[in-house]
Amino acid sequence: MITVAPEVSNSTSGLKLDLENLMPEQTALEIKNLDLFYGDKQALSNVNMKIPKGQVTAFIGPSGCGKSTLLRCMVTAFIGPSGCGKSTLLRCINRMNDLVDICRIEGEIQLHGENIYDKQVDVAALRRKVGMVFQRPNPFPKSIYENVVYGLRLQGVKEKRHLDEVVEKSLRSAAIWDEVKDRLHDSAFGLSGGQQQRLVIARSIAIEPEVLLLDEPTSALDPISTLVIEELIGDLKDKFTVVIVTHNMQQAARVSDQTAFMYMGELIEYSDTNTLFTTPAKKKTEDYITGRYG
Amino acid sequence: MNSWFKSGSPWIWLTGGAVSISLISVIGLLALIAWRGLSFFWPSEVVQLEIEKAGVKSAVIGEIYDREQVPTSRILATGVDLGDYNEEFIERLLLKTGNREYVDLDFRWILTTDIKSQSAPKDMAVFERSKNGNFYGYVEKVIENGQEHTSDKVQKLEALVERAVSLNDEALDLQNGPIGHINYALERARLKQRAYELDGELTQERIQEYEQFKVEQKAKYDVLEAELFKLRGEAKRDQVIVKDMRGEMVTIPLYQVLDFTFPNNMSFLAKLGQYFVQLGKFVSDDPREANTEGGVFPAIFGTVFMVMLMAVIVTPFGVVAAIYLHEYAAKNAATKMIRIAVINLAGVPSIVYGVFGLGFFVYMLGGSLDQLFYPEALPGPTFGTPGVMWSALTLAILTLPVVIVSTEEGLSRIPSSIRQGSLALGATKFETLWRIIVPMASPAIMTGLILAVARAAGEVAPLMLVGVVKMAPTLPLDGNFPFMHLDRKFMHLGFHIYDVGFQSPNVEAARPLVYATAFLLVSVIIALNITAIGVRNHLREKFKVLEH
């Protein structure tokens, strides 16, 4: 399917965004010269990219390629082989990497023009703006209702009516309302894996983040749950900038508007999804998506 | 044989055997103390033995407590003439003869060769008395208000004993209740007055007020005292005349009688009823006669109260310390050293904690507290003397390592994905800890608490230095403000066992009580643990995390 030479321009159709020269008001996140080290090992090197607002960006790449690390950045999909730094990149975006003692970061990530690694940034406030869903569903040992309102309770919201409204709205947005509306006060652990993952998404969008980071959200789920969540991602991009890390290239092709390919901690190629999958510019990308390695 | 080894079954036998041996020892231990302790309350037969010794005939009445075989030579060596008895062993009985004030010893060894006949007369009565222990004999006459009854003796006696018991109870309630309150109020007023005096604020007005108060209280006291004497006088009205084993008539005032039974004339059901009555008294009564008779209620209460106080102190301390060590402290050599030190604290002998508690808590802390807050009571100490609070604190330090270690284990078992989930929603570390992590670790905290309670409830050695006494006149909890008296000394089941078993003037009488108290102590600890385990299981169910 990929026979076109990699020299194809990325300004083919008017609908496509020029990812290199994105206007500031179109940009949700901008990553500049990002390097990340775990101790002596460099996990991300010199990543530069702009992630547009209201779009799905996918990161692909092999496990450990830095996709997730970066995500903890946008729906831009990151693809790439394991260990390529996709997830690492993702985790930079809401500073989940702070939890790793030996992690060190150089360069910057700008959210609406402000560097999130600035010393003055309140990390908790940043994470309220940049929500994140992890590979495995991680509901809290509380009721479904309490899981959804957890973020709001942290912000001190007490009014029952407001909480009820948010619960319904979030659960509807996460396409799980009909399944749980009769057992909101049951333990979240009673849900299936796919339901738990949608609950976790509902929990993240209940606090209305600007950016939602999904770190391989379907890797632990069955195909049907995966399909439901993919459809959900399509709906979510109307309200949030979604960044997704995935191993699954079909998934990236299905859900994302832009796709970034990472390999060995480097951003190899980043363009609109269609272009990346049909006419990749780099040899490595082509090799990867045609299944020659990774 | 070789293939048998390879099959692995020897290991199954070895490991299974180890478990069985442990189980058998535990069950055996419990069964022994339960049997020896609980059978004590069964109303045993009272026998009348006709004995002839060196041609002198006499009768002995009592309960058979024990029987044993002794070498004949040992009896001969004590200078006893056994006549033509020439077997190697000779059997003897231990008889509890009661009637302590009329015989030299209320426990007697009797050689079976001396016994001419044995009977269990149906009309043999056992009187349980508040002084001098049991009395065995035949009811001859009942004297009600100076009037003698010889017919319907038993029914009359029952009614009269009931009357005397209720009068005694009333008098005791009066003494512990209203009269106790007055004494307590007077003491507090005196201390307040003394405090004014020390502060130089003792005005004429206050002196008058105090005098006035004293007069008022004295007037109330006089009324109550008159009532008390009246009750006591009433209780002293009746007597019973009993024929004892010497054949002499003994007058027993009924106010000393707590209960009387005819054990030889009881059906099985009646005995069962009596058994539970006795068991109930053991659990709910105060001790009498230097702890060798009566119940152990103050000791049960003291044990449970002290352990709960300790749990209330040790849990927050241990949990907070564990959270710091696990969540906030840098993961370096210093933290490791501290952790090792904490674990090693659990190995320090408990008496060392007792010495520390006495030196630090009682003398230093307590002494300073007295100087600062209770100068009016000096030189009498308030907190500068062993008491229930210092005991609870000492045991809290003793059990702190257990709580810290198990809380830390609980914290480390919580999947990091849950923490990340909370942090990703904008929670700070503290919020994550408080709302998610600590509740999820609560089953582990409860495990720590269970271990702490089990250890603390069984500890005696340190308590002997910091607060336990043989006999505490008041409980640490009563109706006088401020209701909880943490400065008071208390009784403890563990110490009670030691005291009754080894410090008692009447070893034979005390022996079954030692078993009964030991069984009770084990029961109390098991009850505390089962409660805690119930709470823990409930929490576990609530915070069950699916295995990821």
Helix/strand/pairing category of chain A:
alpha/beta
Note the overall shape of chain A: globular
CATH topology-level fold name of the largest domain in chain B: MetI-like fold
At the fourth CATH level, what is the homologous superfamily of the largest domain in chain B? MetI-like
Description:
The complex is a heterodimer of chains A (294) and B (548). Chain A is of the alpha/beta class and 294 residues long. Chain A has a single domain (22-117, 126-139, 191-289), classed as P-loop containing nucleotide triphosphate hydrolases (Rossmann fold, 3-Layer(aba) Sandwich), CATH 3.40.50.300. Chain A is built from 11 helices and 13 strands. In chain A, the strands form 3 sheets. In chain A, strands 3, 5, 9, 10, 11, 12 and 13 form a 7-stranded mixed beta sheet that branches. Chain A has a 4-stranded antiparallel beta sheet with strand order 2-1-7-8, covered by helices on one side. In chain A, a hairpin with a 2-residue loop joins strand 1 and strand 2. In chain A, helix 4 (144-154) packs across helix 5. In chain A, 54% of the residues are buried. Mean pLDDT of chain A is 78; it is low at 1-15. Chain B is an alpha+beta fold. Chain B folds into 3 domains: 46-123, no CATH class; 140-282; 300-489, MetI-like (MetI-like fold, Orthogonal Bundle). Chain B has helices at 2-7, 9-38, 72-77, 153-199, 204-235, 268-284, 297-328, 333-345, 350-373, 388-413, 416-424, 429-458, 461-466, 493-502, 507-542; strands spanning 46-53, 56-71, 89-96, 107-111, 115-119, 124-129, 135-144, 147-149, 239-243, 249-253, 257-261, 287-288, 293-294. In chain B, strands 6, 7, 8, 9, 10 and 11 form a 6-stranded antiparallel beta sheet that branches. A 5-stranded antiparallel beta sheet of chain B has the order 4-3-2-1-5. In chain B, strand 1 and strand 2 (56-71) form a beta hairpin. Chain B starts with a helix and ends in a 6-residue tail after the last helix. The model of chain B has no long low-confidence stretch (mean pLDDT 88). At the A-B interface, helix 3, helix 4 and helix 7 of A face helix 11 and helix 12 of B.
